Amino acid sequence: MTTSTPLLSIHDLHVDFETAAGSVPAVRGVSLDIGAGETMALVGESGCGKSVTAMSVMRLITGRVSAGSIHFQGQDLSRLPEPEMRRVRGAQIGMIFQEPMSSLNPVFKIGRQIEEVLMLHQRLAPQAARAQALELLNRVGIPSPERRIQQYPHELSGGMKQRVMIAMAVACRPKLLIADEPTTALDVTIQAQIMELLRSLKQEFGMAVLLITHDLGVVAHFAERVAVMYAGKIVEQGQVRDIFKRAAHPYTQALLGALPDPLHPARRLEAIPGRVPSPRMLPAGCAFCARCKFAFEPCLEKQPELFQVAGEHRAACFLRA
Amino acid sequence: MSAPVQPGFETLAVPSEAAEALALAETPFQQVWRTLRQDRLAMLGLVVLVVLLVLAFFGKLLTEWWVVFDPATVRLPDKLLPPFSVASAALAKELVPPFGLYPFGTDELGRNVFARMLQGSFVSLSVGIVAVSISLSIGITVGGLAGYYGKRKLGFISVDSWLMRITDIVLCFPTFFLILTVVALLPPSIYNIMIVIGITSWMGTARFVRAEFLALRDQDFVTAAQALGLPEWRIIFRHMVPNAMAPVLVSATIDVAYAILTESALSFLGFGVRPPYATWGNILADGRSYIFDAPWLFVIPGCAILVVVLAFNLLGEGLRDAMNPKLRKRAS
Asked: Does residue A192 belong to the interface with chain B, where contact is any CB pair within 8 Å?
């Protein structure tokens, strides 16, 4: 649990996207706290609003933050003027993306791209930036960085590119690293290496990490706390152990039920019936209600708030009220 | 802390790394160059242009700075001589052309057409290149801003609409007559012509750049650059513009040809460069009166214009193919 003021504090965030058919809510009242050096995982299906939440921290969304606040080190990021926000991005908050293949500029050598960040935020001279870039590439585990630094992104494999992206994101020793599905586009063997790299960098630099993923296996190994999102809301939040051992929300239980269990390999995996409701037509009550086998009257009428289960473990379900 | 390279990773990585280095150790420029080299016509265009550039440079050098070929020397006894004529013996010594020969003949005042063509080649190429540089700067800026800021509103109309509607309006002008009018009002100078051609021919570039930017805007590397806190002008001009250059470069090459043609047409009509100074257009215009008596006077500049325009177009076409990844063949 966070002791003093958390590093990042998202409070009641609402993000809407304006479309021709009206405003569509993508995030509906998300509150999150991340302490310094802590790893928080944001889990959910595609389209549940986890990436939108992360992008609104960086203020890089096309949608509109209609309500809520995002405080980073006590500063309200949503009120910060753009030039100051630019000093936060990259320097204070680093970000890595899902697609390492397309996240590097294809026309520049990777060395130049890393140096650019260093020269911009740390005002390093070109030679110093080059030396630092070499060191970073070495640190993220790229063999023969002297040669790689002279290469273009297309000459690197996906895993290498993700390492370069990580090097760029941590170049200025950010306090917070947002990793938006950092391993989704990589093969399984590379995934483990990348997660291991992130873990060691996090320890070395004392970074907090906001890990966005739909891979519960990654969450179990890497995160300390977890928030599960469904249809733009956090449905369950707590320590990794609590979530995996004593999942309180039927959605989390269903997610875990859909995972293969190495102890019972013969068990049939359970799919969750139905589909995620469209954000255009959200029900009045709990968004999971239509797919939930425990649903009862209040679920249809009212949206559940986060009820305490135990300690900081909370779930948005009337079963826990 | 040591690098987290796991044992086994190193050994695994080595062969694939070596293969990668063999297959792909090529800059984007080298890739384009390799494809371009296989295109015979484009290479022909490129060779012609390089030769012409060298000629234009020596033309400037030898006709103005270190005068070997004086385009302005009038030799009335030698007027209207056909190409490869020998200078007449009656000529004063200082008037005799180099080697006593007129490779392209002489005009109605006995001026050495070869010297005039040399001087004109510099004018034509520099007008083409400078005018296109101006049009590129305007086009890239307008297209880039329209593409990047697209949806942002300025008043109640988006930036994109403002800029592209202005582009459409400029596109509606009958460009050549606009140039003609402006040039007629301004003092006749080669710089005015460059500027006027430049500011009336950027619309195509702006549209190309905008189209590329609309596609690039949502690319991950642009988001990544934003997430790294790079300033917007840097993202637009350093990160996105180089990625949008392929179609722009192709159209720029063809635009140079168009600018040369426009300059020649202006000079032909007498609105171009001042008469004692030779350009291909006014040599052609002067030759018009002697079509039957001295056909070389219009055939030579005419062919020169034709060759340059053709060369630029061939190179442009070749570049278009070389820069299109769908048409580019893998080396292997």
From this structure: no
